[in-house]
């Protein structure tokens, strides 16, 4: 991932600049193995390998984000623009917040929320479907705030892994001039 990602970011930045679209990329310093392990222990779940590889490249990121916040942000897992990929320090509180809404008191947790869709601004997020663990990866779900997990699981699988999801995001912009949220129909200019 660390080999193709910088190239995709550069291609995307050139395309956005040519179209005078002012969106940026904020990558954090890399996570170390201890931070990732602590995060997994706090979550109570194993993170998928491609997401762990990303965390070792950038411990969270906000991609396709505006340069200036539209309003003051008080929680670290929230963004008012872009696609906010959670870090080892924000993924636990982000999941705690989502669990308050989407996991019944006696229910079994079936997802790990890893990305807040700030660009959309509706409360939607992406998660790993932990019922689909294969080859050290989970499928990625589009978690619409208007639906329950059963609906996400049945109808909203948008990628086979974190890496597949990230590649599709960049390819949608680079190859199709579409929105990074490739699973939501619309053009980037709309």
The CATH class designation is Alpha Beta
Evaluate the radius of gyration.
16 Å
Order of strands in the sheet with the most strands?
Answer: 1-2-3-4-5-6-7
Number of discrete helical segments: 6
Task: For this entry, give a set of tags.
7 strands; SMI1/KNR4-like; single chain; alpha+beta; seven-stranded antiparallel β-sheet
List the helices and strands and how they pair.
Blueprint: H1 5-18, E1 24-27, H2 33-43, H3 49-57, E2 61-65, E3 83-85, H4 91-102, E4 111-117, E5 125-134, E6 137-143, H5 149-155, E7 157-159, H6 162-176
Antiparallel strand pairs: 1-2, 2-3, 3-4, 4-5, 5-6, 6-7
Helix pairs in contact: 1-6
Task: Please provide a written account of the structure.
It is a single chain. With 190 residues, this protein is α+β, with helices and mostly antiparallel strands. It has one domain: SMI1/KNR4-like (3-Layer(aba) Sandwich). Helices cover 36% and strands 21% of the residues. It contains six helices and seven strands. The chain has helices at 5-18, 33-43, 49-57, 91-102, 149-155, 162-176, and strands at residues 24-27, 61-65, 83-85, 111-117, 125-134, 137-143, 157-159. It has a seven-stranded antiparallel β-sheet. The model has no long low-confidence stretch (mean pLDDT 84).
């Amino acid at each position: 991932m660390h080999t193709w990602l910088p190239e995709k970011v550069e291609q995307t930045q050139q395309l956005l600049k040519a179209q005078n679209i002012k969106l940026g990329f904020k990558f954090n310093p890399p996570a170390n193995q201890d931070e990732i392990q602590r995060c997994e222990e706090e979550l109570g779940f194993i993170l998928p390998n491609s997401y762990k590889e990303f965390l070792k490249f950038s411990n969270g990121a906000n991609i396709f984000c505006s340069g200036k916040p539209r309003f003051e942000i008080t929680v670290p897992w929230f963004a008012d623009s872009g696609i906010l990929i959670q870090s080892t320090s924000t993924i636990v509180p982000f999941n705690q917040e989502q669990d308050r809404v989407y996991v019944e008191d006696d229910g079994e947790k079936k997802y790990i929320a890893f990305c807040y869709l700030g660009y959309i601004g509706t409360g939607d997020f992406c998660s790993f479907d932990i019922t689909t663990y294969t080859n050290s990866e989970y499928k990625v779900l589009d978690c619409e705030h208007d639906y329950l997990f059963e609906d996400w699981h049945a109808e909203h699988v948008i990628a086979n892994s974190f890496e597949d999801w990230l590649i599709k995001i960049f390819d949608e912009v680079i190859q199709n001039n579409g929105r990074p949220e490739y699973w939501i129909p619309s053009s980037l200019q709309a």
